Amino acid sequence: MSLLAIKDLVKSYPRPDAGTQRVLDVREFSLAAGAQLALRGESGSGKTTFLNLIAGILTPDSGSIVLAGRKLATLGEAARDRLRAETIGYIFQTFNLLQGHTVLENVELGMAFGRGVKRAHAETLLKRVGLGDKLSQYPRQLSTGQQQRVAVARALANSPQLVLADEPTGNLDRRHARESLMLIREVCYETGAALLLVSHDERVLASFEHMRDFALLNRAQMEGVR
């Protein structure tokens, strides 16, 4: 049974002039528990919208998303938020760290929306990503690579079944990008979490055994190319 199953997923946005622009049209997609898959997609291809729909941050115009046996469309907003907090870890390209909170607090706040705050676990995760000596520092005191590691620890704080990573190496130099990607994949493997990563970086994509081209998955983009 798939951890994630999608069928006939459509999403459109309003156009400035009039009407709507369809940006996503995915007939079928699935991901098995524990799998690691990379999606190749250029900017504007709809891949971030795709991840946000999976996470329940956005709602589709039509179609179904079944995550961990639960159909998102049947859930109210509160239930959808709770499922996201308990099942999904999201690594954003811009990290989305709270600048007024310490490194440790950023991870603990991620826990607060899920199964509850466990400081010892948060500290263990931060040590695992090499930030055991940065717990009381603030994001602005960290390098870009270190901030990304905080984002990884936060995404894994609730022991998610699925980790979504949106261009997670986009703001890093080559060395830190390689190290960060290895860390994400290793921790997902160790915890049994599935990983769905989107990127346009060929070096990142080449490191995955399983990769799909998002342009071939998203019929809205295919029609736009024509």
What is the CATH architecture term? 3-Layer(aba) Sandwich
The CATH H-level superfamily is: P-loop containing nucleotide triphosphate hydrolases
Number of helices: 9
What is the topology, as strand order, of the major beta sheet? Answer: 6-7-8-3-9
Largest sheet: 5 strands, parallel
Portion in helices: 25-40%
**What class do helices, strands and sheet pairing give?**
alpha/beta
Fill in the CATH topology.
Answer: Rossmann fold
Overall shape:
globular
Query: What is the typical, i.e. mean, pLDDT?
Result: 90
Structurally, the number of domains stands at 1
Give, in order, the helices and strands: EEEHEEHEHHHEHEHEHH
Distance between the termini: 35 Å
- The parts where pLDDT drops under 50 for at least 5 residues are none
Number of E-type strands: 9
Strand content: 25-35%
Give a quick rundown of the structure.
This protein has 226 residues and is α/β, with parallel strands linked by helices. The chain has a single domain, classed as P-loop containing nucleotide triphosphate hydrolases (Rossmann fold).
Give an overview of the whole structure:
Helix content is 38%, strand content 25%. By secondary structure, it is of the alpha/beta class. The strands form 2 sheets. A 5-stranded parallel sheet has the order 6-7-8-3-9, with helices on both faces. The longest helix is centred in the last third of the chain and has 18 residues, at 174-191. The mean pLDDT is 90.
Label this structure with key terms.
single chain, about 230 residues, alpha/beta, Rossmann fold, 5-stranded parallel β-sheet, 4-stranded antiparallel β-sheet, 9 strands, about 25% strand, globular
